[in-house]
Amino acid sequence: MSVADKPFVRTSILAAEPPPPGERGAVAWIRRNLLATPKDVILTILALALIAWAVPHLVNWLFIQAVWSGPDRTFCATTIQGGIQPDGWSGACWAFVSAKYDQFIFGRYPLDERWRPAIVGILFILLLVPMLIPSAPRKGLNAILLFAVLPVLAFWLLHGGFGLEVVDTPLWGGLMVTLVLSFVGIAVSLPCGILLALGRRSKMPIIRMLCVTFIEVIRGVPLITVLFMASVMLPLFLPTGWNVDKLLRALIGVSIFTSAYMAEVIRGGLQAIPKGQFEGADSLGLGYWQKTRLIIMPQAIKLVIPSIVNTFIGTFKDTSLVTIIGMFDLLGIVKLNFSDANWASAVTPITGLIFAGFIFWLFCFGMSRYSGFMERHLDTGHKR
């Protein structure tokens, strides 16, 4: 056998080579995602035509012809150059948002006392940010401060106590109420949802029946009904002379409603855990709560992170329904100001609604992006 006929075994791995030029870059991405089939080509052309038609009009209305300052509605009927539009409309009336901005954030909270919700907001951010960073130390202490100490301190500052002027909750409103309702609803619903999900899977018939009844009854009615019951029906069952604060009623209603949905989300994660995980925990001699806390629940929560965040986003948006019980969150206070005669114009309502929608989108988009970050950090198979 000649040397040329002898088999050759490579002793080193070939170096990775770059993909062909036609398979990388922006052109390849466009061809693969937008022009792959004739149907994709048609849809892409239609989408580009729609964007080319709509974007210039939106930019012109939102920014170029918008009115950014002015003391009253008369400025919102004219352009920046002072000429009247043919249809009597100008661009967006951001002067209305600027004039009412403080109300949109704090509601009717007294002007001289608005430093109090500002301090609460700063403390909330300072405690929330390290809680959301996985590498931040002292998570236990941070959780205690955020979920136990801050609510007590926030109520003391916002409502008044120890010498501070009392500000009744009917004066609260705007983004402040939205954040209070959503934070309490989210913070209460997760642990309550976990307990309800475990109770629904319990082998004790009474516990299981109570949890199933609670979950199915609450999930079977809309949130607006729960809020109405908490606001109107709850006082009827209290002793004479007792009264429950309207904000507290809303907090209870939102928390109960969200907990029922969260329970089903957690139960879905528990059902996805392989039976071998339970058997392995039992073989180690772990008790029920040790097994649940150390092995089962961390895996279940990791599997349903998207669903949990989806429930949080729904809770944040559903806080706008508290207007049914006479409270004014961000959307409610914006709509309330439409009745101000000084700012009554054709563009005022849509401008206010765009502002409220953008704020809601900003918070919901932030929660969605953080959900994606946590999925990648916990390696749940998230694909971008």
Question: What does it look like?
Answer:
This protein starts with 24 loop residues before the first helix and ends in a 7-residue tail after the last helix. It is built from 14 helices and no strands. The chain has a single domain, classed as MetI-like (MetI-like fold), CATH 1.10.3720. The protein has helices at 25-33, 38-64, 94-106, 115-132, 139-159, 175-200, 205-219, 223-233, 246-271, 275-283, 288-303, 305-318, 330-336, 348-377. The longest helix has 30 residues, at 348-377. α4 packs antiparallel against α5 (139-159). 63% of the residues lie in helices and 0% in strands. 27% of the residues are buried.
In short:
With about 375 residues, the protein is mainly alpha-helical. About 65% of the residues lie in helices and about 0% in strands.
Beta strand %: under 5%
The CATH homology group name: MetI-like
Gap between N and C termini: 54 Å
CATH architecture term:
Orthogonal Bundle
What are the SSEs and their pairings?
Layout lengths: L24 H9 L4 H27 L29 H13 L8 H18 L6 H21 L15 H26 L4 H15 L3 H11 L12 H26 L3 H9 L4 H16 L1 H14 L11 H7 L11 H30 L7
Helix pairs in contact: 3-13, 4-5, 6-7, 6-9, 6-12, 7-9, 8-9, 9-11, 9-12, 12-14, 13-14
Which terms would index this structure?
384 residues, MetI-like fold, mainly alpha
